[in-house]
Design goal:
This protein is mainly beta. The chain is built from no helices and nine strands. A hairpin with a 5-residue loop joins strand 2 (15-26) and strand 3 (32-49).
Amino acid sequence: MQSIVPYNALTGGVSSRFHIAVEPHLNKQLSDNRSFAMSGGLGYTKRIVPDIDVYVLVGGGGACVKSHSYLYSTLEMGAILREVWNMKSLFTLIRTDSQVDAGSHFYTAVFSQSNYLSRSNTLNVDWKLHFNDQYKRNIIALTWKNIF
């Protein structure tokens, strides 16, 4: 669950993220390690023009894999563009420290394009690049979301 809310002088506004999942976490070689994880973050969002928001979130979490438990930190910055014809683009760069392997870090660059076909149907195209000094890993996904 993520809420990217632009700051307003009258009402304030804090952006936040909260996440609980069984999911793959990455080690130094950017290989998957299934973990039970809980994470969160707080941040600030600024609407720089009517259709573009930029944001930063600082956070972290904890997780358990087969052999051990660990804490990790994240720094996320991104931009949200609301486009014509019910489309939205999201650009994100995330730095993750000490996930699975203590002392390691990696970056994740994300581009997500959403086309809201109707009130209940959305088509998403996502590209994700995980990288560090030695390795990189691309993920591309096409998803359809139906809210019922």
